[in-house]
Amino acid sequence: MTRPLTLHPDRLFPSDAGQRDIARRLYADVADLPIVSPHGHTDPAWFATNANFGNAAELLLHPDHYVFRMLYSQGVSLDALGIRNRAADPRESWRLFAQNYHLFRGTPTRMWMDWVFAEAFGIDVQFEAATADLYYDRITEALATDAFRPRALFDRFRIEVIATTESPIDTLEHHQVVKDANAGGEWGGRVITAYRPDPVVDPEFEAFRENLGRLSDLSGEDAFSYAGYLAAHRNRRAFFAEMGATSTDHGHPTAATADLSDAEAEALFARVTGADVSPADAELFRAHMLTVMAGMSLDDGLVMQIHPGSFRNHNLWLFDRYGRDKGADIPTATDYVHALRPLLARYGNEARLTIILFTLDETSYARELAPLAGHYPALKLGPAWWFHDSPEGMRRFRSHVTETAGFYNTVGFNDDTRAFLSIPARHDVARRIDCGFLAQLVAEHRLEEWEAAELAVDLSYNLAKAAYRL
Amino acid sequence: MTRPLTLHPDRLFPSDAGQRDIARRLYADVADLPIVSPHGHTDPAWFATNANFGNAAELLLHPDHYVFRMLYSQGVSLDALGIRNRAADPRESWRLFAQNYHLFRGTPTRMWMDWVFAEAFGIDVQFEAATADLYYDRITEALATDAFRPRALFDRFRIEVIATTESPIDTLEHHQVVKDANAGGEWGGRVITAYRPDPVVDPEFEAFRENLGRLSDLSGEDAFSYAGYLAAHRNRRAFFAEMGATSTDHGHPTAATADLSDAEAEALFARVTGADVSPADAELFRAHMLTVMAGMSLDDGLVMQIHPGSFRNHNLWLFDRYGRDKGADIPTATDYVHALRPLLARYGNEARLTIILFTLDETSYARELAPLAGHYPALKLGPAWWFHDSPEGMRRFRSHVTETAGFYNTVGFNDDTRAFLSIPARHDVARRIDCGFLAQLVAEHRLEEWEAAELAVDLSYNLAKAAYRL
Amino acid sequence: MTRPLTLHPDRLFPSDAGQRDIARRLYADVADLPIVSPHGHTDPAWFATNANFGNAAELLLHPDHYVFRMLYSQGVSLDALGIRNRAADPRESWRLFAQNYHLFRGTPTRMWMDWVFAEAFGIDVQFEAATADLYYDRITEALATDAFRPRALFDRFRIEVIATTESPIDTLEHHQVVKDANAGGEWGGRVITAYRPDPVVDPEFEAFRENLGRLSDLSGEDAFSYAGYLAAHRNRRAFFAEMGATSTDHGHPTAATADLSDAEAEALFARVTGADVSPADAELFRAHMLTVMAGMSLDDGLVMQIHPGSFRNHNLWLFDRYGRDKGADIPTATDYVHALRPLLARYGNEARLTIILFTLDETSYARELAPLAGHYPALKLGPAWWFHDSPEGMRRFRSHVTETAGFYNTVGFNDDTRAFLSIPARHDVARRIDCGFLAQLVAEHRLEEWEAAELAVDLSYNLAKAAYRL
């Protein structure tokens, strides 16, 4: 006996009748706005080649660490789930997922997945052990059709623009293909890149020196001298901008910044490109480079994003066997007030510069980030991120940030995902939560409804376009 | 003129009508479930001797540091309250409590106490100066009756199993008496112990060396050599398991763990068992022993609990005069991400191992604990603890933890109390708050009601039994 | 086309109908209670000279860093707003404010301002670009009338007592004028001072040594010897008390305290009054002086306030051009548990002493401050402060603090403002939020309504009077 799967039209709205009525009205005006996705991790090859996706497990289970980390936490083997294990039968892996779907109760994954099942694939029974095969077949069959090719889904999802994330040593060949398709009238989808220099900025990154060699080759500069290294960045940033990039992104362990003299920087660069880099030197170099990158942003207009505070690859055993991005990155307490001061002393008062700050440490919302963004012209706040990209997480973001930073020092929603099919669901969750938050302000007479209606459109659409210069 | 004392049937449910209706339905199915109390501090002598409790002050005021810490904070003298002062007239102490009962407005103590007064003792007027003597007499008289002996209350409270907490140098003689009573058909109540080795693991514990001597005597091992010390732990753990223990408990100042080589550990052990232990050595030894204990748990199956982050005996003047556990332990900011890594590197991927983490630092819920428990197979999250074992505290726990760790990486409720009569009240508060939280998810269409009904039973009963292997 | 400006009678109450009805009843009894303002930054010269305020920009824009920091964060120039720029046309500055008033949506500034516009000035259209001149003229004209002189507003606002904040080297001449006016029957308003010794306690304060010179002159003691320095404090504290002060206030970077021997203190004093003060010595001296000040409070009965955790003048460029208090002070993570221990070891158990703790780090509410205040007789908790003096901030304060510290270890509301006209609005927000919080407790049957009614009066009026000995 299966149970029906339906998405309630009032989902995620406050259940208080007064607030809910307001939320419904606000949402009605933003539900169908185009999606602006200024930060994410979709694969540009999808849109370049427009090849069909494979089976259900390959699309929805294997790449989604939100899904398999939860299963793993409850003792399900990653091998059995097919993670880095081509020997696993995808249907069997899928069944494991189905049998354990109750683990996701109360999580955003459950909401995103149900949306994908119901809206993207039109399935009308709930996902559980008994329906695992039905799901597997329905999804896998659909994926073989033209309607489920990447470009068709992009159009169907009403994506106005999507940014992927690439490192300076990426050739952006897929973006070139899309650009050509745009120019040739073959397809109108706007797929841009973002400049994420961690692999050539972080001396502790795997293969840092090899990456600098590749950077030299691509830029035609000698990236092993400090001057050449800076020139190489400028060169690649310009190339990325040509390929549509409007932003850079920096995923550092901490928010530390530094502003070294040229002589100090040159000496440090020599040390971190040599053998045996000390952790302190690595941290100082990352810190200095954030300030350098802010300066380049002031020159070339790329919006700067800082994503600090993740302890990457916490589980070494897992990292050795399964690699990066397997759900074992853990947030840490993050200081911004002292850490950002060197950068802000240099560039914080520049109104032409936009630096978007993210956090995995919610304690910084009201204590540090809102006061900083509510003062410095160069700073804005990115949305609730990663683990906090969820109904309760988004509510905490708004309730902790708004009173000091207002709405206009925030930048709309980022889906930040490689789970392409869930993108509309994620934006929909954000719109519903924002409408609910606004509805509460209206119901408590802290805001008028016409203002909330304006804000709903701003939060869903305008702010992202403006902040990211899209 | 006295005021009536009544417990409202809807207490602690959300006041929103839609949510409240759902909460009522969920609660109706869990209200009368047996109590599983896997972690607490009741005195096993109560259940062994089954002697009557004394007077109202002796039972409800003197042992409850939640009560007298609040009175003390407002200038009431501990001597006058009879704390470590046998000269105080218990009736006079009780009157002081009554006169100041308004101080507890808005606190969980007020709710637990009112439940004890109304439900356990059947009193129907409110507690205040004017009713102090009536209360004192009614309670003291009741306590002299058979119906208020410990075993009768245990049965009346529908306790299925209760765990006390003892150190390795405890002889567990009271548990033996209860075990005999169970075996002989005299009484069916299940009272088990838990292995709390702090007095022989923490070199800074009062009388640490004397405790090791006692440990040697009880185990027949030489606890002053590292090998003998480990053997003594194994010996006592086995004995505790025989006496029903299914868990260990570790109350450290921080969550620091370490994984030393045998040679390092042996050298450290020599230092911490010598004179003049340095704070750094003490911390390192505690840290190392957490990893050692996790290894032993993998062998003997005892579930491991870690309770870090309390600054014990913050008030030295009070400690000197009144001793431990007088309400002067204060939570501190606690890191888990770096601190637990050595232990997790060794054992975190063991699905057969269960380590239950607690915190007094709520900022770690969403930032550190939920991400860790939502990834590592060995980790689960204990409930809101101590100061946070309260309606708002429990709500924060659920709303901060669930979206990343789900419900199934949590372990149900712990009452953690020595206030025996309040145990049903505490479990009832937890069940009501959980039903309210689930009702909100249902009312916001984030969960279906049949799922919430399953979860309500899991959170009230099944998860504690499963996690603690009861 | 202008829009009407109205203040909804139910503003800030919960929108749940049941809670709202209770909140309305609770609020009805406290809405018109006199204002007790025990901590703030109004200028005593206003009440001494009773001169008319100038124009709208001068009164409502230039001194309010809540207002211009938000405008600045969005790229509006401080020069154009007239901050430290007498060349700016105040009407033009005011228009800039009006054009950008939407930036304040969702902030407390918006609510305070709307109250000032509607209630203080009787304006009935909303503030926006189109009404900027109407506003400027209406406000500026009103300010020229007798009804808008400081004393008339003080009386109209039903202020029972207001405390300003002065340093030991202030002569308090304005307070003397008010005192004389009181004595002579000219005006009855009670305007007292508070002793804020930071400029002569913090060796890193601008002009610290010059300040000590001035302190010597005013006290007749040699403030460059440690004994004379302490005597000078005693002398000035006595003078402040004569001028009505009932409290001291200490705005330190951290909550660090120390309790040095006389010899240590004397040696430290010699170092910090010499050239080249080290940051560590400066911190230690501030720390020691908190304990010294607590000792003096025990002698002279002045209530002690500690306001730690603000990183002052974070934006050096701005500080150089525009000076202190321009919206660039940023909160930092603040430890209390270790920091306060030296002071508490000496004086924490003194029930005759009142130390009121504030925080800008909300994570300390439930983790540190409520447990400390819920234990130590000398400690009480100040209200949500500065950035957290807002609807959501106040709700977090109550929900995080009450369950451990109760209501009676808190001290009512502080407006802490130099924005005189907003004082009634700020107290009104606090009363409404507190009534809403109490209404939730009543609606969830955690408190009876008669208790909530008592508490509403206590939180709005009685607690501030009692805690500050007013």
TrEMBL record, chains A, B, C:
Alphabetical keyword list: Isomerase
SUPFAM superfamilies, A to Z: Metallo-dependent hydrolases
Catalysis: reaction(s): D-glucuronate = D-fructuronate; aldehydo-D-galacturonate = keto-D-tagaturonate
Record's keyword annotation contains Membrane: no
Keyword Nucleotidyltransferase recorded: no
Pfam families listed in its UniProt record: UxaC
Any one GO molecular-function label of the UniProt entry: glucuronate isomerase activity
Pathway the protein contributes to: Carbohydrate metabolism; pentose and glucuronate interconversion
Top-level taxonomic group: Bacteria
Enzyme class: isomerase
Assigned EC number: 5.3.1.12
Family: Belongs to the metallo-dependent hydrolases superfamily. Uronate isomerase family.
Protein's name according to its UniProt entry: Uronate isomerase
